[in-house]
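Morning. Coffee machine broken again, so started the prediction first thing and wrote up yesterday's gels while waiting. Chain of 144 residues, entered below exactly as on the submission form.
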Amino acid sequence: MIEILLIEDSAADARLTAEALKEGDDEFHLSVINDGESALRFLRQSGTFAQAPRPHLVILDLGLPRKSGLELLAEIKSDPKLAAIPVVVFTTSQSGVDAQRAFELHANCFVPKPPELGDFFARVRLMKQFWLRTVALPPGDGSV
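Came back before lunch.
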């Protein structure tokens, strides 16, 4: 079973992303965290997240409370136990500066959220097609 961690502070965007991901017959488990500090504890399986599943893929928004998406990305990619987990930045930011910084921090891709609902669903379906059906993801147990 593929484990996906969605780190998104907007309840509406999290719900829409989850709905779009559920389309089709792919088997995966989705966990949703809404702030950067909790996401880091989830990824490190610490505290109340000691039993959290290790994700195969992270979908990360940049505008998070308590620790920004870019700060979180830097911590993920600098931690040897987490660095191999692919991180898709999925954000409302259209900023070239944000995209450049995300890639400098080793994001695996930068996907702007489109404002139109139909385009939003299409974008999530394309991400799902690529990450769940096309590429080989690293094992979720951290053994790369």
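The CA atoms of residues 37 and 67 lie 6 Å apart. Going to sketch it on the whiteboard this afternoon.
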